[in-house]
Amino acid sequence: MNEMIERVARALARQYYKYHFDRDHDGDWEDWTGPARAAIEAMREPTEAMTDLIWQETADPCWRENAIKAWQAGIDEALR
Predict the structure, then answer these.
(1) Is the Cβ–Cβ distance between 12 and 36 less than 8 Å?
(2) What is the C-alpha separation between 58 and 80, in angstroms, rounded?
């Protein structure tokens, strides 16, 4: 199992059980791998605000496109 998918699946399971049953429980986290993958995939495209912030931090206009590529590469790795 991919580490990031498991991490997100466990977090989703904990939130679900806490909200619905008032207890922290991630024992059934495997059932949450599909939603976890979908959540990570939804983050593949950085928002304009995220890209702007990266550009402000670097002050290098060439970095804007590189920042997007780096972000997407990280998300792709999280989904492997």
Answers:
(1) yes
(2) 29
Q: Which two tokens stand for residue 72?
A: 């997407």
Q: Could you tell me the residue range of the domain that residue 68 belongs to?
A: 45-80
Q: What is the pLDDT of residues 48-72, one digit of tens each?
A: 888 888 777 777 767 778 888 888 9
Helix (H) or strand (E) holding 27: none
Residues 6 or more apart from 16 whose CB is under 8 A from it?
Answer: 32
Instruction: Flag whether the pTM goes above 0.90.
Output: no
Please state the domain count of the chain.
2
SS3 24: coil
Residues 72 and 44 sit within 8 Å (Cβ to Cβ): yes
